[in-house]
Protein: LysM peptidoglycan-binding domain-containing protein
Organism: Paenisporosarcina antarctica
Amino acid sequence: MTAIQTTNYLYTVQPRDTLYSIASRLGSTVPAIEQANSLYPPFTDPGLIFPGQLLIVPGGRYGYRYEVYYIVSPGDTLLSISQQFSGEFDLLLGINSQIANPNLIYRNQPILVPAFIYEIQSGDSLYRIASQTGIRIEDTIKANDRRASFSPDILYPGYHIILPLASSRNILVNRPLPGNTIQSGSLIEGVARVFEANVLYSIVDDAGNVISPEDFITARAAGPEYGYFSTNVEFDREPTTSTGDLRVYTRSANDGSVQDLVRVKIGFT
């Protein structure tokens, strides 16, 4: 599972918008928008868009790497945005530290969302993507609500879809992406709001074998702030299956029980 390796924007078409005006505003190009959203025959007339449609706009103006920004449109709230991308309100606010008042967001404001963009390959279906990534079909459909040319039943090669990242209320895993293949030494990273900044992780293969036993990462900030964390994971044994889970979590200070568990489906090389 490979993400589109550029910053992408999710833009809701407004009255009088054109592909040219959208591309100019967000640092993209008309051909890039047409390709990402299949705005060409047989899906639609070339470049035809309607108010209310959600477009993926490949660009590079606000962020870097694989980040996805939702561009606020009239009627949006942080709660509605978080729900569309299967994230928690607290998490969305935490990864957008520039927002001083969660009840006050404005039109055309870029909001970082817990998602990545994937280009459909030959043979893909929502079921196949769910099997590879562990992302529920209903969450993918919800993330792509109002998308131009999107059909849950038929996915055409070259079309770009929005996929939610693995997260809980207090933890977001940015790397590896769901469905990625990892090996000993691979990078894991994300953001977390945790007591004393200690983020726990382990890796288990699908046979239940612990490939990387529980260890901790120290995030750059402790709760109540969200802090970035990263480490290069080391395997203690070879996996016995081709796939497994990366588990990122915390433990209760009272009884040691696992809390805020985030599971990322992964493959092994």
In short: Helices lie at 19-26, 30-37, 78-84, 89-94, 126-133, 137-143. The mean pLDDT is 94.
